[in-house]
């Protein structure tokens, strides 16, 4: 029995659920934080989305069917929560999700948790110009080094489409960074 299988059994057990959930948080908290942070940009917003992600996982673990890895299922929830968060903010402020992304990047310089330099800021600006799916694929491959197979489970699309999206994203980012 794999560790993931055992963890899943414990998560679905009323007696062991609390302890297993603490283990799950320990295992995935940091990776999910950075995955979400690459999407929503702000530290505080990331903390909110991360908390919402874990709440959803906790409430819905009994619905997990095991068609993918537990990691992929949790990442899919985190990705969807991040996109929902951006879209809700955009709607609340009556602007587009692209404008929300641009605001978040503009605020990075004042974010005490952002340790990047001007090159990293320029890269974030370049990424923000990409369509949503290309942003996700680029961030997952470039920053998190997630394999296309796992990405395929998380984003529910083919590996070929993901490779093409990544390739196009890289070309667009290169063009953005070398213009001027």
TrEMBL record:
Signal peptide: none annotated. PROSITE patterns: SIGMA70_ECF. Keywords: DNA-binding, Sigma factor, Transcription, Transcription regulation. Residues 24-91 form the RNA polymerase sigma-70 region domain. The keyword Transferase does not apply. Residues 121-173 form the RNA polymerase sigma factor 70 region 4 type domain. InterPro entries: RNA_pol_sigma-70-like (IPR039425), RNA_pol_sigma-70_dom (IPR014284), RNA_pol_sigma70_ECF_CS (IPR000838), RNA_pol_sigma70_r2 (IPR007627), RNA_pol_sigma70_r4_t2 (IPR013249), RNA_pol_sigma_r2 (IPR013325), RNA_pol_sigma_r3/r4-like (IPR013324), WH-like_DNA-bd_sf (IPR036388). Belongs to the sigma-70 factor family. ECF subfamily. This is RNA polymerase sigma factor.
